[in-house]
Design a protein that fits this description.
This protein has two helices and no strands. With 110 residues, it is mainly α. The chain has two domains: 33 residues; 76 residues.
Length: 110
C-alpha cells in the first residue's frame, strides 16, 4: 500500500466514522425529542404541582391559625382553672373558720 492509497483509506474511514456519528446523533435526537403533547402534559403537571403547593400552604396557614386559637383557649382554660382552685381554697378556709366559730359557740352554749 503506497502513500496515496493510505490517505484515501484513512479519508474513507474518517468519512464513515463521521456519517455514523451524525446518524447516531440524529437517531438520539429523534428518539428523545419532546413532542407537543408531552410538553402540554408537562405544563399540566407543573400547574397541578403549583396548585398542590398553594393548597399545602393554605392548609399550613389554617393549621397555624387553629393551633394559635387552641393555645389561646388552653391558656384561658388554665387561668380559669387556677382562679377556680384559688376560689376553692379561699372557700375551704372560710368553711373551716365557720366550723371553728360554730364549734366555739356550741362549746360556750353547751
Amino acid at each position: 500500500m503506497n502513500r496515496t492509497e493510505f490517505i484515501i483509506a484513512t479519508a474513507v474511514i474518517l468519512f464513515v466514522a463521521f456519517v455514523l456519528g451524525w446518524f447516531a446523533c440524529w437517531l438520539i435526537h429523534r428518539l428523545t425529542r419532546v413532542t407537543r403533547a408531552e410538553m402540554g402534559e408537562l405544563e399540566h403537571m407543573a400547574q397541578q404541582l403549583h396548585d398542590a403547593e398553594e393548597a399545602r400552604d393554605s392548609a399550613i396557614t389554617q393549621l397555624e391559625e387553629r393551633e394559635a386559637a387552641l393555645i389561646a383557649r388552653l391558656s384561658q382554660t388554665a387561668s380559669d382553672l387556677h382562679a377556680a382552685r384559688d376560689e376553692l381554697r379561699e372557700t375551704h378556709a372560710e368553711i373551716e373558720e365557720l366550723r371553728s366559730y360554730i364549734n366555739q359557740k356550741l362549746a360556750r352554749n353547751g
